[in-house]
Specification:
3 copies of one chain form a homotrimer.
Chain A lengths: L11 H19 L12 E6 L4 H12 L4 E6 L11 H10 L4 E6 L4 H8 L3 E7 L5 H15 L6 E5 L6 H9 L6 E5 L12 E4 L2 H5 L4 E4 L4 H5 L5 H8 L14 E3 L22 H20 L5
Parallel strand pairs in A: 1-2, 1-3, 3-4, 5-6, 5-8, 6-7, 8-9
Helix pairs in contact in A: 1-10, 2-10, 3-4, 5-6, 5-10
Family (chains A, B, C): Belongs to the aspartate/ornithine carbamoyltransferase superfamily. ATCase family.
Organism (chains A, B, C): Thermus parvatiensis
GO biological process, one term (chains A, B, C): 'de novo' pyrimidine nucleobase biosynthetic process
């Protein structure tokens, strides 16, 4: 791969290769001196046309821990306000000699377009409702760490599936590793179809015998748009200790963060032993190191 | 000490030890190449739930000059806006492998709570009205530099004592080094009591024979809240050349910055030879280097 | 030179010396590892009292590629909001041990004043309508790269000359290298006189036999102020393929960015072979490296 945009055309071997490198990176992160010279002299730009501190910091740490330089471009503080296009912004950064672009955008397809404009490598840091591939890779890494394998495992994704790039990327990725993916949510927040996943408006059906449950963040905007009512959502889709009894004993809980405790999930669940939320964040840095390493100096070239 | 939250339980020896290290750091800062490898491979996060560019830059420089990596989290640009709690923010950073947190918050106690959430070390960068310990350490360092000793010296702190974490931390720290601390301000801006200090609404009483006068910044919010009238404040509490005649000849002037010239102090005083304001800023970097060094690699561990 | 504020008092030899160093820096930027240790241990502060992401990132990369540390101060996020003056801001940074200041300000003269306040070197990153010397240096570098020499060459600058620091700095600099500079724009956007340049309200006169055309960005504020009407501007001053026929065959096109495509210039022109826009951005990093190097460690000292 030359860029990481989504998982179209990826093979199981490529995924495993990336996750293997992430495991090496995770060992680096356990050392007292969490720094290797792998990307010395490379410059990584985070180009965020939509704000997200936690994703930005995760990529920034991934780059710095491999000794890359990092520059941050955020649309709010930028000349985009003066009408500069995505393209001109990226061409400007390209001319400054950036090696890798982490692009986040509220409209789908911006990272794809970027690959036509710049010579550097592009990593999709989340685009519209389309894809968030490093999130799915860290989810896969975390699930494998907890479950050993994804072969034949049932993973339930719960919440606003329709608008979720996290769901979409996981539905692309997890089946490659042998998982059976179910997605559940209110009818107004479910797509018509989602190749790779089984859809249901019944939470219990998705949870039944699941090995792990991924709870999505509920966006306030959905309520404002009249797509759901908060109390209805909580009544029918909040993931609770009680409802998790349908799943396999000890089934794990994931959430891409930031969590709305006591909205999409019972607050105490987030801190329970089932929760892999902090592992996800931890693994995110290792996975992003692996992705940048592959694209910039590894076999990705 | 494992964290720096305030000076509860601190001994004179601990303070002197920290200031001794700060003196070594100050020598590093006099070199043409102001950089040592002491914190290579460590990552320091500035976590500012309340904005403050100068404090952030001071800590950032302190960390960088010891070769640490620095990431900055500011609540404005962050998912806190989406309702994420202080706790989840810090747990997320913790999972990313941060070694030290510089936490600034508008509510008192956030840095204390943080020590229960994270494994890394916590430095209080100012919390509500409660404490601003690195400011007090740099004030102590600067006073010692100017006066030689604090034993038996009279230090006057003037202004809005009630809402000032700077005053509170200095009142905790300076007596440990033998100073007698007086605080003066309008009755509406004085606390009922302040253990460690002598309180007075009469500026002249605090200034009388003082060795140094620390002038606090007057917050516009106090006027809006009807606690004071600007002209009254200026008439009775502005520190001027004339009023300083009550103090010891050559008494020094400190201010935590940023100053409102001609409000809390006569503008020209800030640039006079009495003023230690720039020394305070300069010493701030050295003191913060010492604190981070002690907590991360020194005897603090 | 001790600072870079504008080109008053500069000689041709000094300009050529700076551009020669920039050529060496440009070679560094072609290497796989774009990093040299020239400024290790130095700290560069970008002090932006007016926002500009692209200029900030360009300077930041220039500093980092010579291994300097960089801290960023932006007025919006800062205590300037609390009424702190430019002077106190700079004195604070000075006390923290900054070696070089890149200062951008909406009012002319702030960088000049700064040289009286700080001991470190000052680089004008653009002040009001007055000067933007690194922009002019990168324009000169780019023109020399394209034309071989500026001796006897005709350069046309088109647009809002009156409010443009880019025009002003180019009019100071390019004649030193032998160029004949014409400036053209609507009468309401032309100054009374501009020593070093020939002024005309007739675009065709400026374009006639020009070797290169520099198109300035049209600020929306000018329309709001009633100085021009957009359709009139486009009709009479937009630089188009057709109008460029007046210029020498193959005349080059420059723009300081960000561009308003199809306003000040025909959109397709920006991507044509004539366009040096991306070269300008690329050369900007090399030129800024040269300036920082000269001022901090080179003959500038």
């Amino acid at each position: 791969m030359r860029h990481l945009l989504d998982f179209q055309g990826w093979t199981k071997a490529q995924v495993e290769n990336t996750l293997d490198t992430a495991r090496v990176m995770a060992e680096v992160l356990e050392r007292p001196v969490k720094k290797v010279p792998a990307l010395q002299g490379f410059t990584v730009a985070t180009v965020f046309f939509e704000p997200s501190t936690r994703t930005r910091i995760s990529f920034e740490l991934a780059a710095r821990r491999m000794s890359a330089d990092v520059v941050s471009f955020a649309a709010q503080a930028s000349s985009l306000q003066k009408g500069e296009s995505y393209k001109d912004t990226l061409l400007t950064l390209e001319a400054m000699g950036i090696d890798a672009y982490i692009i986040r955008a509220d409209s789908a397809g911006v990272p794809h377009q970027a690959t036509r404009w710049v010579k550097g490598v592009v990593v999709n840091g989340g685009d519209g409702r389309r894809a968030h591939p490093t999130q799915a890779l860290l989810d896969a890494y975390t699930l494998l760490e907890a479950l050993g394998t994804l072969e034949g495992r049932k993973i339930a994704i719960v919440g606003d599936i329709l608008h979720s790039r996290v769901a979409r990327s996981n539905v692309e990725l997890l089946p490659l590793l042998g998982a059976e993916v179910w997605v559940a949510g209110p009818p107004t927040l479910l797509p018509q179809s989602l190749p790779g996943a089984r859809l249901t408006p019944h939470l219990d059906e998705a949870l039944a015998e699941a090995d792990a449950v991924m709870v999505l963040r509920l966006q306030k905007e959905r309520m404002e748009a009249g797509l759901i009512h908060l109390q209805d959502y909580i009544a029918h889709y909040q993931v609770t200790e009680a409802r998790l009894k349908k799943a396999k004993p000890g089934a794990f809980l994931l959430h891409p963060g930031p969590m709305n405790r006591d909205i999409e999930l019972e607050g105490t669940l987030a801190d329970s032993e089932r929760s892999l939320v902090n592992r996800q964040v931890r693994n995110g840095v290792a996975v992003r190191m692996a992705v940048l390493y592959h694209l910039l100096v590894g076999k990705g070239r």
